[in-house]
Amino acid sequence: MARKWRGALVGSLALAGVLGTIVVHTTPGSQAALLATATSVNVDLPRREVSGNVESPAISFIDSPSPTCSRPVAGTGACYIQWNYLYVTADSGSYVVSMTVTIDNRLRAYHSGFFQSSMFIPGGMTAPGYRVTCGAPGSGGIAEWGKTYTYAIRARETTGLTAANYGSVTCPADVVKVLLPLIQKH
Length: 186
What we know:
Elements: H1 2-25, E1 47-50, E2 59-63, E3 68-70, E4 78-82, E5 85-90, E6 96-103, E7 106-112, E8 118-122, E9 130-133, E10 145-157, E11 162-172
Antiparallel strand pairs: 1-11, 2-5, 3-4, 4-9, 5-8, 6-7, 6-10, 10-11
């Protein structure tokens, strides 16, 4: 009877070791960036911010290529801000808890993690992008272009420390024309 229990215990420990190894080695590595054409003008260069000791960041990095702002249908006033992908990795021994996207101080996306050392959000997951108003020509300070929006991408890990990327994107101009019917009084 003791041999059976010992055999079952050894088998269970071996299975747990194999499963643990699989979980550790299947964490996704660096993802290839998708190629895309830019349809907007960036006003400010994106910048990164890390809380805690600057020489030893809490989160290794947030990778967010410059966003684009596109106007799929002219005359609607609707533009869409989108990134090809968003990617964050946690410091060694930590896990990514969440990643958020804010545009003009409005929370637009919240992605949460569960025991993962990195988080990859492909652009297709948020397609066609985050809807914003295009704006009239010059409304963002650049002639012939529309509004300029600021964004912040923030990530938090299990140690409670955070990292962030900031920047801005300018959308194409678009004017909505509303035609009212002519009603004659008698």
